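Predict the assembly for these three chains.
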Amino acid sequence: MNIIDSSFYKRDTVLVAQDLLGKTLVRYYNGIYVTGIIHETEAYRCSDDPASHAYRGKTQRNSAMFGPVGHSYVYFIYGVHFCLNVVARSQELQAGAVLIRSLLPMQGIPLMQKARKRMTNLANGPGKLTQALCITREQNGIDMTQEGQLFIVDTGIIVNKKDYRSTPRIGLSMAQDVLWRFYVPNNAY
DNA sequence: CTGGCGATGAACT
DNA sequence: GTTCATCGCCAGC
């Protein structure tokens, strides 16, 4: 198993968001591996990014974004859902994270179906993916560069520049001019 | 297929 | 009080 180490995340957040496409997110839960290929991400930086939780500095909620790279940042949104990020930034940034928005389910699909209470659309959205993988605030701040309950591996899938699209990020009223959402089109779930 | 809307908590003005 | 890095249901094409 080829776990991605912290040097991968110690680069520009936008670059890391692009390079995470094609990597595999692994959730080890109740003795079962639930995995999926990452195929949609968004980059969030800090004081240079009005749409980022870290824009106004460190708070209790976003403190993980200021912590070690390669760790998880899980937050609760709209009173209903959790969203999973990986902390990533270059030296000069104080904070930054990549939102994982969508997965192509691979292993443990029956468990995802049970967690989601449906058979399809298991992980094609940030709130859906955390539900499918049973990720809550308890998984906030986990070191995802170590084998454990949550980590990311490289299975050798190459996603070239021509294989993905760049668009404005979803659900924002601010900063719609930067194309920091990346996704691989043509999903088949 | 599309659009409207309620659910419901945390952070901020 | 308002906004928010969302989702699923329902109505109406």
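The two ends of chain A are 25 Å apart (CA to CA). Residues 42, 44, 51-53, 75, 77-81, 83, 85, 99, 101, 118, 121, 125-128, 131, 169-173 of chain A lie near DNA strand C (CB under 10 Å from a C1').
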